[in-house]
């Protein structure tokens, strides 16, 4: 997610932090590099320009340059401005009755998928969502929504076959919804390859009829420079209330996110981060800014972990990490926990300093081998890996069907990991210090 921008910015800031003293020239150079990075990430020209001007003005302030850690302070200014550009705080959905949400956007942006994802998310929040198919142009869309609704386990309205009058469908759907035990209605509307007038008129009419509390523009994060015109058109015609940004898991350069929010002045409310129905989350500007700047998204990670992991287990693990009494039994237990958290690459990106691990990929087969090695050890060996002499290592290699070198490698990496944990402990202390920006 935003990896290109994140890489570039982290290089610029690494350089900036390297200077004990910072001059105006350093800042001007850094801002030029940042502007290039933003443009390359498809941030619209005027958005990038305004942003740089604001950061530069603050960074050139007397206090910053004379401060003890000017580099860090500039990163902090940048973080704050980036958060503001992404929208400041997370804005929750307006679910006042009748709690109607219209999903709009171009074809392929992810409207239908996001409608179902949103239903699933709302269900987890204790709501009773209803899905309503109003895309009368793409015949497959109705069936797609109905199938997804079954997966999520929520009722779904499908229009009478062949019906082309969207207002009639809206009326039928609204009547149907009244009879259902639901309290949030999600309307999946029609899209096009490109914006055209008939499409806009149709959705506009539906909007006027439904008077929804939310009109969410669903947009693909990889939209590129077209993003500004898409957002402007939809917003002018429909007065959207928020954005859902999809496919943030891809190689998207992500500039669309920054530009769309800026030109509409509407919050990005949710982010789609994968094809699966649960890969969808509320959008938090400050967390994303932190991730772009390589400061990690510790809160997001903790929330993810809390949802997937038993609290008692997590507490015990934390204690072990803190006191560095982590052994191979814990390693194995943690392996199992990690599996529950989903793809490892995503998790690593949330850790400070890890988002720029280039070409890092996690090989699931390799993970199974590692697990097999640990499982071939006795409990005593796992608690005290120091007893693992050459003979024992040979036995373990045989038992797990790997070479002795692989066993040695694992033990060596485990040693490094323990060291890293001590490092994380220190980093946590640093991060909890006020004003520490990295
Ligand atoms: P619609 O035409 O706007 O209704 O788009 P769809 O909901 O049919 O989505 C188009 C494609 O994008 C589908 O293959 C989805 O699985 C995929 N998609 C939607 N959201 C995401 C996302 O957040 N990440 C990824 N990787 N794919 C997504």
TrEMBL record:
Binding residues annotated for GTP, in chain numbering:
105-112, 188-192, 246-249
Reported EC number(s) for this entry are 3.6.5.4
Q: Which residues form the SRP54-type proteins GTP-binding domain?
A: 267-280
Q: Which UniProt keywords apply?
A: Cytoplasm, GTP-binding, Hydrolase, Nucleotide-binding, Ribonucleoprotein, RNA-binding, Signal recognition particle
Q: Name one GO molecular function term.
A: 7S RNA binding
Q: Which domain of life is it from?
A: Bacteria
Q: Which reaction equation describes what this protein catalyses?
A: GTP + H2O = GDP + phosphate + H(+)
What sort of enzyme, by top EC class, is this?
A: hydrolase
Q: Which GO terms describe its biological process?
A: SRP-dependent cotranslational protein targeting to membrane
Q: Where does this chain mainly localize?
A: cytoplasm
Spell out the subcellular localization from the entry. Answer: Cytoplasm
Q: Name one GO cellular component term.
A: signal recognition particle
Supply the Gene3D superfamilies for this chain: P-loop containing nucleotide triphosphate hydrolases, Signal recognition particle SRP54, nucleotide-binding domain, Signal recognition particle, SRP54 subunit, M-domain
Family named by the database record = Belongs to the GTP-binding SRP family. SRP54 subfamily.
- Fetch the PANTHER family from UniProt: SIGNAL RECOGNITION PARTICLE 54K PROTEIN SRP54, SIGNAL RECOGNITION PARTICLE SUBUNIT SRP54
What is said about its interaction partners and assembly? Answer: Part of the signal recognition particle protein translocation system, which is composed of SRP and FtsY.
For domains, the record's comment is: Composed of three domains: the N-terminal N domain, which is responsible for interactions with the ribosome, the central G domain, which binds GTP, and the C-terminal M domain, which binds the RNA and the signal sequence of the RNC.
Q: What does this protein do?
A: Involved in targeting and insertion of nascent membrane proteins into the cytoplasmic membrane. Binds to the hydrophobic signal sequence of the ribosome-nascent chain (RNC) as it emerges from the ribosomes. The SRP-RNC complex is then targeted to the cytoplasmic membrane where it interacts with the SRP receptor FtsY.
Query: What name goes with this protein?
Result: Signal recognition particle protein
Taxonomic source organism: Chthoniobacter flavus Ellin428
Phylogenetic classification of the source organism: Bacteria, Pseudomonadati, Verrucomicrobiota, Spartobacteria, Chthoniobacterales
This chain is encoded by the gene named: ffh
């Amino acid at each position: 997610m935003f990896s290109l921008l994140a890489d570039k910015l982290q290089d610029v800031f690494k350089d900036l932090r390297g200077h004990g003293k910072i001059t105006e020239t350093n800042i001007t150079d850094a801002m030029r590099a940042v502007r290039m990075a933003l443009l390359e990430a498809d941030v619209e020209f005027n958005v990038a320009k305004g942003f740089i001007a604001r950061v530069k003005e603050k960074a050139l302030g007397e206090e910053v340059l004379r401060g003890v850690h000017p580099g860090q302070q500039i990163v902090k200014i940048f973080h704050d401005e980036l958060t503001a550009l992404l929208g400041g705080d997370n804005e929750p959905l307006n679910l006042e009755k009748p709690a109607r949400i219209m999903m709009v956007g171009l074809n392929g942006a992810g409207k239908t998928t996001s409608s179902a994802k949103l239903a699933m998310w709302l269900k987890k929040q204790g709501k009773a969502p209803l899905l309503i198919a109003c895309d009368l142009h793409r015949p497959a869309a109705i069936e797609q929504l109905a199938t997804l609704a079954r997966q999520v386990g929520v009722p779904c309205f499908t229009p009478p076959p062949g019906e082309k009058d969207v207002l009639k469908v809206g009326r039928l759907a609204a009547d149907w919804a009244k009879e259902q035990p639901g309290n949030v209605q999600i309307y999946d509307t029609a899209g096009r390859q490109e914006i055209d007038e008939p499409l806009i008129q149709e959705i506009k009419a539906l909007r006027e009829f439904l008077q929804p509390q939310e009109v969410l523009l669903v947009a693909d994060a990889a939209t590129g420079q077209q993003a500004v015109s898409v957002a402007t058109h939809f917003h002018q015609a429909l007065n959207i209330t928020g954005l859902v940004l999809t496919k943030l898991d891809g190689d998207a350069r992500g500039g669309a996110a920054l530009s769309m929010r800026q030109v509409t002045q509407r919050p990005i409310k949710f982010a789609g981060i994968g094809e699966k129905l649960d890969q969808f989350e509320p959008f938090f500007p400050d967390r994303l800014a932190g991730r772009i700047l390589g400061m990690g998204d510790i809160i997001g990670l903790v929330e993810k972990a809390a949802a997937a992991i038993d609290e008692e287990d997590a507490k015990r693990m934390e204690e072990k990490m803190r006191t560095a009494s982590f052994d191979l039994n814990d390693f194995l237990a943690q392996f199992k926990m990690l599996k529950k958290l989903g793809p490892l690459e995503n998790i690593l990106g949330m850790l400070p300093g890890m988002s720029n691990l280039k070409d890092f990929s996690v090989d699931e087969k390799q993970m199974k081998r590692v697990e097999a090695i640990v499982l071939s050890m006795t409990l005593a060996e796992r608690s005290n890996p120091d007893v693992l002499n050459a003979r024992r290592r040979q036995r373990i290699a045989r038992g797990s069907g790997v070479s002795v070198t692989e066993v040695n490698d694992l033990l060596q990496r485990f040693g490094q990991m323990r060291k890293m944990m001590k490092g994380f402990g220190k980093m946590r202390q640093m991060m909890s210090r006020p004003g520490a920006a990295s």
